Amino acid sequence: SQELEQSPQSLIVQEGKNLTINCTSSKTLYGLYWYKQKYGEGLIFLMMLQKGGEEKSHEKITAKLDEKKQQSSLHITASQPSHAGIYLCGAAINTGTASKLTFGTGTRLQVTL
Amino acid sequence: KAGVTQTPRYLIKTRGQQVTLSCSPISGHRSVSWYQQTPGQGLQFLFEYFSETQRNKGNFPGRFSGRQFSNSRSEMNVSTLELGDSALYLCASSSKLGLAGGISYNEQFFGPGTRLTVL
């Protein structure tokens, strides 16, 4: 089973609308990354969250890590066509004996005109 | 500063062959991690190298191996290729070790990937 669940799997929004992508873990997250990927290309780092309750913003994208550090949300305000792509959350999850690096399955975002 | 580079960008092989992929990290970065990305499994961690030593390993068979050179450049090798090995292989570099046996975690910069097709 996927250790990091992202929802929704895909999203189509009209330009100018707001949207939220969620990333949920069954284990405590020690550092949560958000990346954006254009189809078939490498990942572009968006932001990293480490402390419970932490919130970071870059341009029109805001990410938050909840207090219990088991869920993060990525919010895009006034979406633009340039926001289209696949959004991935990644995290180091403590398995008890070691840490394991894992990624969510991704959320495919399309922005229509 | 130049970003992470990966060569080749595209590769077509047949079953049973072996393949070597190369990754040059950002200058000054000593950690290189490799990932496999497929539509079905998503992005999965293969291994991480730091200072020429493998520090972390994902759940992949022994056909997948890697190494890192003294200049931090890394290669990944897949032997006896299977159809299921068709994927986008991404490498990422970081200035520090990503998972130092615990919960240390640092920003990783990804390369454009090598798309491997196994026929």
Question: How would you summarize this macromolecular structure in one to three sentences?
Answer:
The complex is a heterodimer of chains A (113) and B (119). Chain A is mainly beta.
Q: What is the terminal-to-terminal distance of chain B? A: 37 Å
CA-based gyration radius of chain B: 14 Å
Helix percentage range of chain B: under 10%
Poorly predicted sequence stretches spanning 5 or more consecutive residues of chain B: none
Secondary structure tally: strands of chain A = 11
Percent of residues in β-strands of chain B: over 45%
Largest protein interface, residues of each chain: A-B, 26 and 28 residues
* Mean pLDDT, all residues of chain A: 87
> How is the main sheet of chain B built?
7 strands, mixed
Oligomer: heterodimer
Backbone shape of chain B: globular
Helix content of chain A: under 10%
- Give the H and E element order of chain B: EEEEEEEEEEE
Structural class of chain B: mainly beta
Taken as a percent bin, the fraction of beta residues of chain A is over 45%
What sort of overall outline of chain A do the alpha carbons produce when their principal axes are compared? Answer: globular
Q: Kindly name the structural category of chain A.
A: mainly beta
User: Largest sheet of chain A at a glance?
Assistant: 6 strands, mixed
Number of helices of chain B: 0
Question: Helix and strand string of chain A, N-terminal first?
Answer: EEEEEEEEEEE
Please tally the β strands of chain B and state the result: 11
Describe the structure in your own words.
The complex is a heterodimer of chains A (113) and B (119). The mean pLDDT of chain A is 87. Chain A has strands at 4-7, 10-14, 19-25, 29-37, 43-49, 55-58, 61-65, 71-76, 85-94, 99-103, 107-112. By secondary structure, chain A is mainly β. Chain A starts with a strand and ends with a strand. In chain A, strand 7 (61-65) and strand 8 (71-76) form a beta hairpin. Chain A has no helices and 11 strands. With 119 residues, chain B is an all-beta fold. Helices cover 0% and strands 50% of the residues of chain B. Chain B is globular, with a radius of gyration of 14 Å. The A-B interface holds A 2, 30-31, 33, 35, 40-45, 48, 50, 88, 90, 92, 94, 98-106 and B 4, 33, 35, 42-45, 48, 56, 58, 88, 90, 92, 98-99, 101-105, 107-113, 115.
